[in-house]
Amino acid sequence: MDELAFELFQLASKGYCCTQCMVKMIMEMEEKENPDLIRAMGGLCNGIGNSQKNCGVLTGAIAVFGLYAGKGEDHEYAKAGYDRMVKDYMEWFEERNGSLDCMDLIGVSLFKNTDRSMTFPVKCGELIKEGFLQMNKILRKNGYVPGER
Fold it and tell me: Which whole-number Å values give the CA distances from 5 to 98, 101, 136, in the listed order?
């Protein structure tokens, strides 16, 4: 098991969903903690609010693009390239996986309770890993260094 896969396994074992993993891993690269942000990402778990619509890997990556290039203060605007990063990632994600929706990707409805720690590592671990690597590739392509803001 490679280092990234092991880190994902550890996060999943602690009960973090796909969206939270995407954001938590980038925060760890930055050597920062933000429990409020991770909690907020919980609303996007399991396809936005447990609906199994847009996949958490997708929404987590888009949230990370926002951390790097989105508007955060009254006087700011989204940085150049923000929309392009989101579009590129969504296109890659759909082409790679055939859908943007959690239900289509895992093929079954697994999220009947709040303990997702045993279901998503098996179904989603590789998807999170590939998605995280692609997110970092897109950040770099647009002049950002993953882990440095």
Answer: 23, 22, 15
